[in-house]
Amino acid sequence: MTWVLANIEQIWRLTLDHIALSVPPIILGFLIAVPLGWIAHRYRPSRGAILTVSGLLYTIPGIALFLSLPVILGTRILDPLNVVVGMTIYAVALLARTAADAFDAVSNDVRQSSVAVGYGPVRRFFVVELPLAGPVLLSGLRVVSASTVSLVSIGSLIGVSSLGYFFLNGLNRRFPTEIFTGIVGVILIAVVFDLLLVVMGRLVLPWAHVSRRRESSSRRAIA
Amino acid sequence: MNSLLGALAWLGDPVNWTGERGIPVRLLEHLGITSAAVLVAAVIAVSLGLYIGHTGRLSFLVVSTTGALRALPTLGLLVLFALWLGVGIGPVILVLVILAIPPLLAGAYAGVESVDRGTIDAARAMGMTEWQILTRVEIPLGLPIIVGGLRSAVLQVVATATIAAYLPIGGLGRYIFDYLPLRRFEPVFAGAILVTLLALVLEGVFAALQRLTVPKGVRILQGSPAARGGSGRARVELASGSPAATAHAQGASGPPQRRSDSVSAENSTSLPTQ
């Protein structure tokens, strides 16, 4: 505990670094994956290609991805950008499939009704399909957020500053408190991000948890 | 592009294919670590998952383990265990086992859960014992999903075994961590390429295995070849075989729609936790 208090400044700085590396991939991943998922849902022939490529990108081990990106992007090997781009690729790979499934799950009757009352494609997407896909997208986003926050720490292996630094430094100094601080810090960031996403979900999709509650009680009645 | 050519040249150099630091030895070490961890984890997690899926008891365990372990930084766990238990292969295997349990557990559970209730009731009505129902009905029908859990577990372990080479153990990650401090990037890139290839090959092997494990009867019933095993949902449909069961199975293992922490062998568990 004394170590934590004595080093609170460094902990705070590395926490901010960690957050700065985690936030852009989560947001960018969402912004890229939603249109991709919609295309995969809307145009059947593209589905296989989009989902296969994202599945394969997802297969690449993190450290290998971080190390390969400088070759492709022309960045320096220690550039934090490699971690941000790598994590964005993972976020897109994970969310594209979720988004495709989410748009698939929107009831066709609802879609056709919206066409019948005169909604154009753009308005239909933003007013009907996106809100109805919202709850599934949100749960996908929560998964992405947790895994991004946890994975960013391996960027420390290639010298990118994050809470992962405490893992490596703690091992070198044989000092478990430092490692523990890093682990707790990462989990705290993940929990805070998750809460933020849930709160945002409540604000943007106020009907979601109401209908979920109703549904679970009706399921219980059936069982 | 130069570094890529350098890495390819390094890979082509026969010197790097021989001796105890050669690529074949490192590859075998990597596969050895991976299979040891996955085997231990499978013994624990698959039996537990089958029990939970068959009896319906303790199902909260599946949701809570997959959710809680997602945010846990593996690298931190790895160095912490190395400090506590001493540097060596033991703590590494232990962490990899912990990592492999959630996808295996979720896969085994979701596989059994996906089987149509009517089929199970019919089996029971025909006089099958609970053991027979599990081994002759639930496991064969749920096998593609169970193998799906194995697939995610193997991929996560392969990736994490790479970063575990930060500790003094073998495997393909050695090339990355031995040469990165020396700033000799050819072997580092070569290591990254080798690990990626290994992951892609294993992914292909398990995807094929997943298709092969679809029972013949289900394949005929579905009226389409096993080529449909492409998406998680198609797999659930294949395994359950009837539209009513599909609706039921999706509640448990489809896209996490109703419960935010829904257990899905496909989406929620196949995380790159390296």
Automatic annotation (TrEMBL), chain A:
Pfam family, one: BPD_transp_1
Gene3D superfamilies: MetI-like (1.10.3720.10)
GO cellular component terms attached to this protein's record: plasma membrane
Subcellular compartments: Cell membrane; Membrane
Predominant localisation class: membrane
UniProt cross-references to PROSITE patterns, sorted A to Z: ABC_TM1 (PS50928)
InterPro entries in the record: ABC_transp_perm/SBD, MetI-like, MetI-like_sf
Ranges in a coiled coil: none
Transmembrane segments: 19-38, 50-71, 77-96, 143-167, 179-205
UniProt keyword GTP-binding, yes or no: no
Highest rank taxon of the organism: Bacteria
Residue ranges of domain ABC transmembrane type-1 in the record: 15-201
Keyword Repeat belongs to the record: no
Entry membrane topology: Multi-pass membrane protein
Family: Belongs to the binding-protein-dependent transport system permease family.
Name the UniProt record assigns to this protein: ABC transporter permease subunit
Origin species: Labedella populi
Automatic annotation (TrEMBL), chain B:
Gene3D superfamilies reported in the protein's UniProt record: MetI-like (1.10.3720.10)
UniProt entry keywords in alphabetical sequence: Membrane, Transmembrane, Transmembrane helix, Transport
First-listed, main subcellular location of the protein, grouped into a coarse class: membrane
GO biological process: glycine betaine transport; transmembrane transport
CDD domains: TM_PBP2
Comp. bias intervals (Polar residues): 262-274
Cellular compartments annotated: Cell membrane; Membrane
GO CC terms in record: plasma membrane
Protein name, as recorded: ABC transporter permease
All copies of domain ABC transmembrane type-1, residue ranges: 27-206
